[in-house]
Design goal:
Blueprint: H1 8-23, H2 28-39, H3 43-85, E1 88-95, E2 98-105, H4 110-123, H5 139-160
Antiparallel strand pairs: 1-2
Helix pairs in contact: 1-3, 2-3, 3-4
């Protein structure tokens, strides 16, 4: 087959077309057969285009993931700042087809700051919640049963003292 030199723009168009074919569910073999005839290039070149399409997808996925993470981090940092300063917070809601803005003036809320900081740490992968998990009859279940028994006795004693 005579190979034609493709320019940068033409290569990008071909990679996008290959990407569309992959998304339609065509196999690599089928794409190679169709596109090598249409573009008059080798099957090896079509395989390079397929590889570039997959690489393009990976880059786009990473970019979107990073952008989404950055958006959520910025949102939490803004909330943290507002909770720490005790600013006026504007909340906009749509109720029955009407947009309503509510303004709340709050004092510093350090518990909220702590919760937001924990959430930021979770997003960054720095904070892992600890969970007591064990087989039936484990120590965690025994501790839970003891606490429930203490609570039951406390209630019983407080009701009998009245």
């Amino acid at each position: 087959m005579p190979e034609k030199e493709a320019g940068k723009q033409q290569m990008e168009e071909r990679v996008l077309e290959i990407s569309r074919q992959l998304l339609r569910g065509y196999s690599n073999k089928k794409i190679c057969q169709m596109m090598s005839v249409e573009w008059e290039v080798s099957i090896r070149q079509i395989n390079r285009y397929i590889s570039k399409a997959y690489t393009m997808w990976r880059k786009e996925y990473k970019r979107r993931l990073r952008a989404g993470l950055n958006y959520h981090m910025a949102m939490r940092m803004k909330l943290y700042e507002e909770a720490y300063k005790g600013n006026t917070i504007k909340i906009t809601k749509i109720t029955k087809g009407k947009m309503v803005t509510i303004e709340k003036t709050e004092d510093q809320d350090f518990r909220l700051c702590l919760e937001i900081a924990k959430d930021i740490a979770k997003l960054e992968g720095l904070y892992i919640e600890r969970q007591e998990v064990g087989p039936p009859g484990s120590f965690a279940e025994w501790v839970k049963a003891v606490k429930e028994e203490k609570e039951r006795r406390r209630r019983k004693n407080s009701s009998s003292n009245r």
